[in-house]
Amino acid sequence: MRMTAGGAGATPTYDDRGSPMSPPPDLPSLLLHNRIVYIGMPLVPAVTELVIAELLYLNYEDQTSPVTMYINSSGTTTATGQSVGFETEAFAIADVMKYIRPPVRTVAIGQAFGAAAMILSQGDKGQRAALPNATILLNQPRSQARGQASDIAIRAREVAHNRRTTCELIAQATGKPLSVVMNDCQRVKYLQPDEAVEYGLIDRVIRKEEISPLMKPSFISQL
Description:
Helices cover 38% and strands 17% of the residues. The protein is an alpha/beta fold. Helix 5 (149-174) crosses helix 6. The longest helix is centred in the C-terminal third of the chain and has 26 residues, at 149-174. The model is unreliable at 1-7 (pLDDT under 50).
């Protein structure tokens, strides 16, 4: 039987033992408590801020247990190709992934396009994966610069620099020559999971039979 205390306004709820019941945890908190980081939107500043904060917190909490990052993102563009963020958002996440001490596992689900594909490749070697129907895409940053010619030229140089940095990170992760990666990123290059394994972006494709039985989230036992 559940009881509520008397009095005006919001009242606490009590369980059968008379102990106050806390509200149920929100889903992101459940995932974070189980060392799961989920990127499910384009890499806009608000998403980057949350992902970095979660990685830093998990590093502070436990520097040995692995972190699993699930990626379902169109990168710094929308699904229609409209630019919504800067590649520096992805660079910040990639740098923090290397900065923290826990190993980081990456898993592509749905889509990992552009900058999100680069983040996918930055997981620890042997710990990068994709689900069977995920799609991975390599492309180059787009410039949406407008205004005076001098401003457009400055932005163009920055885009070229970001493109090279993205390709360098992918080349380091895949073991491919930088020239090969830069050539592949000049045009849109779609990779199915098995092709991504061959390319070196990920290490394996997670089949249904490989998925271990689900365990009850550890957060539940503490409620």
